[in-house]
Write a structure and sequence with these properties.
By secondary structure, the chain is of the alpha/beta class. It contains six helices and five strands, in the order βααβααβααββ. It has a single domain (3-132), classed as Rossmann fold (3-Layer(aba) Sandwich). Strands 3-2-1-4-5 form a five-stranded parallel β-sheet, with helices on both faces.
Length: 135
């Protein structure tokens, strides 16, 4: 069974802004395109990417980013009641940002590792596996 990763918005923002973690994200996208790993992202975190890119670079850049995500081997997971309540529980117990809790809840559901550079995820270790983006 291939490794499973959940992308936090931080991971895709690192890619789109060519930040130090971008090569690791690119490598995982390449592996996913070959079926060597599975990448998922909650629709909530997708929304985070959209508003962050639009706020920094405008609507056209956001649309281009969304198009690139749609073409990548990333499964976008809709939020259902169970996932929303899992995220709510994480929010209540950790105080993390609610959108981050969706990435963590999805990772728990899938038995996956969250790919991020967001230090808030330290609050969840070891309950949620985290792979850190580093320079």
């Amino acid at each position: 069974m291939p490794e499973r990763f959940v992308l936090d918005s931080f991971a895709l923002m690192a890619l789109f802004q060519n930040e130090p973690g971008a090569p690791k994200v690119e490598a995982l996208l390449e592996k996913a395109s070959k079926g060597e790993c599975e990448l998922s992202m909650s629709v909530v975190n997708l929304g985070e990417v959209a508003y962050a890119v639009e706020g920094r670079r405008g609507l056209q850049a956001a649309q281009e980013a969304l198009s690139a995500i749609d073409q990548a081997a990333i499964q976008i997971v809709d939020v259902d009641r169970t996932l929303a309540l899992m995220a709510a529980r994480l929010k209540a117990t950790t105080g993390m940002g609610y959108a981050d809790c969706y990435a963590a809840a999805l990772a728990q559901r899938l038995g996956a590792t969250v790919l991020t550079g967001d230090p808030d995820f330290q609050r969840l270790e070891p309950a949620v596996a985290v792979e850190w983006l580093t320079g």
